[in-house]
Predict the structure of Trehalose 6-phosphate synthase.
Amino acid sequence: MSEDRTFDLVIAANRLPVDRETHDDGSVTWRRSPGGLVTAMESVMRGREGAWIGWSGNPGDAPEPFHQDDMYLHPVPLTEREVGDYYEGFSNGSLWPLYHDVIVPATFKRRWRAAYETVNRRFAEAAATITATGGTVWVQDYQLQEMPAMLRELRPDVRIGWFNHIPFPPVELFMQLPRREDLLLGLLGADFLGFQRKPDADNFLRACRQLLDVSVEGDEVRLPDGRIARAAAVPISIDTSALAELATTPQVQERAAEIRRQLGDPEHLLLGVDRLDYTKGIRHRLKAMGELYAEGALDPRTVKLIQVATPSRERLAAYQQIRGEVERTVGQINGDYSPIGATAVTYLHRSFPREEMAAMFVAADVMLVTPLRDGMNLVAKEYVACHGDDGAMVLSEFTGAALELEQAHLCNPHDIARLKDTIIRAIESPIADRERRMRTMRRQVMTNDVQRWAELFLAALAAAPERPAQ
Ligand code: GDG
């Protein structure tokens, strides 16, 4: 496809930031999908010629490029089979478990790997077509790790950045990946590689040193052709002030009060909000809660848990399995301990509008965030932005957020006995202690919001291979 328009800043992500809506009369419109990435991009694209390339979410021919909310959206087509092989297969059946400590086994298929390469090349070609001379391309996440080098080959004039939203695994695990060198070389096509935490950047640098013929010094990788790529931590965040503002609106405040009333005005309301994914530690959290109810440490009449589990990757067997386990456990807890008409665990397997999510964060006395591994975990930051000073949070050490929100009640979710103690400690923590912790955490997320994240990333990319002056 020939394209006559070019852009200074191009974002490449697996998905476009919009969802297709087909109306009764057959007409099609696009609705902006919620998410911090879109918000962050809006702020950095203001005043620049910006474009976004990604899959529309529907297999088959791609729609023509179009404008939406001041952004030029350039759809990349995926066939039905590519959705199965590149997206569900290699991205979510091989890379996702491998990069999350193989909580479930990673599956490798050569057909999946081949599709991943084909799709990454398609993205690189699309970016090459629409990026202005000397422009910047910012590639997002684990689905597009080969794209940077492919794009560099087509467009050596372009500045290329890549950001990893998920963890980067220790080399001992990464080594399991078939054709692992190709992936590292793909990434090294970028000038700057951003990670959620320093340990993730270090894992990447160690993998390069150990598996490639390159020299690694500090946070820089020098390639045989003399080029240098830099890898460092740039932790992602949320649109803090917008969310905090939403949480204080009368509608959200009233809805929060209503949620508590609907649950019978519990003494303590606990909340979990996750995509239904085996990385999120939902089972471990439920196990701890079930035991606390069983032992009488928590009274199911006065201590309630809401667990939101947003449907995710439902065609994959590992996701069907975790859903079954979670639903069985919720059923057991409620069957064993719930009083009539007032279930102990309210389980919600669906998505909610932003306002309803904010109301839940406002309503909850204690937030439970217990992933077994998580790149960052935005939910932790969202709770801090929404809830008043009297909140408390139990937060897994295995999240990126734990490095920034040190005042949370940190936990190892594998250690159920200690997890139970930590939940009790959070529930019983005195108000002065809660206020001190919440205020420090709120300052953290207010200062380090998603707009700042995008600015820091783009400054590091513009300055690479040097560290930007600050
Ligand atoms: C990946 C990494 C990293 C959830 N349910 C609803 C809803 N959500 C929103 C949350 C939050 C987002 O989805 C989930 O973000 P997380 O960070 O918690 O987790 P992942 O989806 O696994 O994200 C992660 C992130 O990328 C960013 O880099 O932090 O580590 O795994 O914003 O609030 N939003 C609405 N309705 C729902 O039902 N509106």
Notes: Residues 110-130 form the longest helix (21 residues). Residues 7-236+452-462 form a domain with the Rossmann fold fold (CATH 3.40.50.2000).
